[in-house]
Design brief:
With 286 residues, the chain is mostly helical. 73% of the residues lie in helices and 3% in strands.
């Protein structure tokens, strides 16, 4: 029993790193421009298909494929921001919700027409790390967790030690004051949105290495990202990683003590509880 619990918890925590990476993009976009990006799920699915086609058509290693997937995610973010978000950035929140929801439906519609809703998968087995007969960890999940931590570290270094990163933090703190200091907020907002979608695409590329997927697969991860952002604190990308670990740990432990159908019940129950007790999340600003 203990071995099963430890293996399930380890699997859940490793998956939690990737959940945190997916939520980080959503949290960054909200923190900088207070926009809830409802196109987050389809962008995750785009990352899945980007890695899939690079692997199937070009024979690119799915982990090396993350580099072009990141570039495509960044460009997609610029396009979505320029065509849908920029025009409603100062409008009431409902306007940005509707704008990103429209992008969500467009991507899903085009993806369904192009790829259908049949499941796809990246068949790239790497085996498992084993300790006796009671403990094993998939190398694909282990590599995905390490990649998620490395990307998070890269984001931290970018935000705190580069001029564009410091400009993003300045705009997030006070856009009007940043503009008075000469920071071009329009470009910084576009960059922030692009980085947010790039993180979502990268998370999709990692998830595709161990789960089958369709164009609709991003939806559940978008919902998990909302839960994680509330746990870690909206607008705190590093808090999103901790929130992802909490959610992943829950998903690992719950099936060992109760039916798996209870997983979303517990997750969203926790979501409501945190909203009631600490609306700013564990690491949100007071």
């Amino acid at each position: 029993m203990f071995g099963q619990l430890l293996a399930s918890l380890t699997d859940g925590l490793l998956l939690g790193f990737v959940y945190g990476l997916a939520a980080m993009g959503l949290s960054l976009i909200w923190g900088v421009m207070t926009v809830i990006n409802l196109a987050h799920g389809p962008v995750i699915a785009m990352g899945m298909f980007g890695s899939y086609f690079l692997f199937i058509q070009a024979g690119v290693n799915p982990y090396l494929a993350l580099l072009p997937v990141a570039s495509l995610g960044l460009v997609a973010g610029f396009l979505i921001y320029g065509t849908a978000v920029h025009w409603v950035i100062d409008a009431p929140h409902l306007s940005s919700l509707l704008a990103t929801f429209a992008v969500n439906m467009i991507i899903i519609g085009l993806g369904t027409a192009a790829f259908t809703t049949s499941p796809h998968n990246i068949d790239y087995p790497l085996g498992a790390l084993r300790a006796g007969d009671w403990f094993s960890v998939s190398y694909t999940r282990l590599i995905a967790a390490v990649a998620a931590v490395a990307i998070t570290a890269g984001l931290y270094l970018f935000l705190y030690f580069t001029r564009p990163g410091k400009a993003i933090r300045a705009v997030a703190n006070n856009r009007m004051a940043a503009e008075l200091m000469g920071i071009p907020s329009a470009y910084i907002l576009a960059l922030s949105f692009g980085i947010g979608t790039m993180l979502a695409a990268l998370a999709g590329g990692l998830i595709a290495t161990f789960f089958p997927f369709t164009i609709l697969s991003g939806g559940p991860y978008e919902l998990k990202s909302f839960v994680i952002c509330v746990l870690g604190g909206l607008g705190n990308p590093l808090g999103a990683l901790v929130g992802g670990l909490l959610l992943g740990g829950l998903e690992g432990i719950i099936p060992t003590i109760m039916p798996v159908s209870w997983v979303p019940v517990v997750e969203f129950g926790l979501f409501v509880l945190v909203l009631l007790v600490r609306p700013t999340g564990l690491f949100g600003a007071k």
